[in-house]
């Protein structure tokens, strides 16, 4: 954990000097410098005072780099294909257990020839077109703006039943960090 670097980064971004932090917290400049260079580990009470002086939640100081904001610009999205019909998948942002993607499904195409199952829970938002979804014995049609969710461990299938390419926003939650592909 690199708490010292987190503190220094926040302090510099907010244009706060070590002297200003020390004035507000009562810490010495030498001790504050040791904290920022990770030469000493401050107590929780000291971290609370530093967080208060920086006007950030204590938890923010404790976040690992991979737990902070993850930005994926539109032009930087990873694009893959999936399934037998090689559906276009644009990977949006993700966390350790949640992935979001936009899937383009050409007219008449589907996520497979037969329903399939995998780990996780899925939430779907139809952004364009009309799709048919099947999970077990349940089936339904969804139009633009409609949404649905399901537990993906039950075999399921999605098919585009419209004359245009359907676009579906999908969010997948899995217990494991490295889950199987959804299609």
UniProtKB/TrEMBL annotation:
Keyword tags: DNA-binding
SMART domains in the record: HTH_XRE
PROSITE patterns for the chain: HTH_CROC1 (PS50943)
DNA-binding recorded as keyword: yes
Residue ranges annotated for the HTH cro/C1-type domain, each copy included: 7-61
Signal peptide: none
Highest taxon in the source lineage: Bacteria
InterPro entries assigned: Cro/C1-type_HTH (IPR001387), Cupin_2 (IPR013096), Lambda_DNA-bd_dom_sf (IPR010982), RmlC-like_jellyroll (IPR014710), RmlC_Cupin_sf (IPR011051), TransReg_Diox_bact_type (IPR050807)
Pfam family name, one: Cupin_2
Family annotation (PANTHER family): HTH-TYPE TRANSCRIPTIONAL REGULATOR, TRANSCRIPTIONAL REGULATOR
Protein name in the entry: Cupin domain-containing protein
Organism this protein belongs to: Paenibacillus phytorum
Taxonomy of the source species: Bacteria, Bacillati, Bacillota, Bacilli, Bacillales
